[in-house]
């Protein structure tokens, strides 16, 4: 299950989860969706069945709170019995010097997934700051399978925000994410 973050509206059509944005530029929700939509066929080419929590055809999700929506996404992963749950995001920080990519996990069964995907990102982004693998409860306690949350870069950083908005860079990130996921499944054949 790939989960491009954000893009939630309530019943009244009001956006309740915008996500972050490059200053006067691209939205996190669109970058995450582009990356996820590029990862999916790469996994499918390896024989995987891939689900997405939202797609280009249905880019918005509907809910009454971001928290409830995030729980709903994890429940969706549970319902389809996903083997892995990958949440795709971009970071934002009030410190405009802050940059780099970070992989988060929470439940201990998720550490292997983090340790497969994060090095793939590191390999693809040698000139970027590697903020490492971190354990945080926001990744999702509701998902019953290995789950990670990727912060692919930092939108508030001028140079990184510019890169993240570019289609070529999004494809580059997607290839790294797919490579990491494939590596995880090759190591954890059941
Ligand atoms: Zn986000």
Largest sheet, if any? 5 strands, mixed
- The percent of residues in helical segments reads 25-40%
Q: Which cofactor or ligand species appear?
A: zinc ion
CATH superfamily, please?
A: Zn-dependent exopeptidases
Q: In CATH terms, what is the architecture?
A: 3-Layer(aba) Sandwich
Strand content: 15-25%
Number of domains: 1
Helical element count? 5
Strand count: 8
For the CA atoms, what is the radius of gyration? 15 Å
Broad shape? globular
* Mean of residue pLDDT values: 96
CATH fold call: Aminopeptidase
Q: How far apart are the first and last residues' alpha carbons, in Å?
A: 18 Å
What does this structure look like?
By secondary structure, the protein is of the alpha/beta class. The protein has one domain: Aminopeptidase, CATH 3.40.630. It is 38% helix and 19% strand. The strands form two sheets. The protein has a five-stranded mixed β-sheet, sandwiched between helices. Strands 3-2-4 form a three-stranded mixed β-sheet, with no helix packed on it. Strand 6, helix 3 and strand 7 form a beta-alpha-beta unit. Helix 3 crosses helix 5. The mean pLDDT is 96. Zinc ion binds next to loops.
């Amino acid at each position: 299950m790939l989960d491009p973050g954000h893009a939630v509206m309530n019943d009244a059509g009001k956006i309740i989860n915008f996500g972050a944005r490059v200053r006067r530029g691209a939205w996190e929700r669109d970058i995450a969706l582009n990356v996820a939509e590029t990862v999916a066929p790469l996994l499918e080419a390896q024989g995987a069945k891939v689900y997405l929590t939202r797609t280009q055809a249905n880019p918005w999700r509907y809910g009454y709170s971001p928290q409830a929506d995030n729980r709903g996404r994890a429940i969706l992963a549970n319902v389809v019995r996903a083997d892995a749950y990958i949440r795709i995001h971009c970071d934002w920080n009030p410190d405009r010097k802050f940059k780099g990519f970070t992989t988060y996990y929470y439940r201990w069964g998720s550490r292997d997934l983090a340790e497969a995907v994060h090095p793939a990102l590191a390999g693809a982004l040698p000139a970027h700051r590697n903020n490492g693998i971190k354990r945080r409860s926001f990744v999702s306690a509701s998902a019953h399978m290995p789950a990670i949350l990727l912060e692919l870069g930092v939108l508030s950083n001028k140079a990184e925000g510019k890169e993240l908005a570019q289609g070529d860079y999004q494809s580059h990130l997607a290839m790294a994410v797919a490579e990491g996921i494939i590596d995880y499944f090759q190591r954890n054949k059941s």
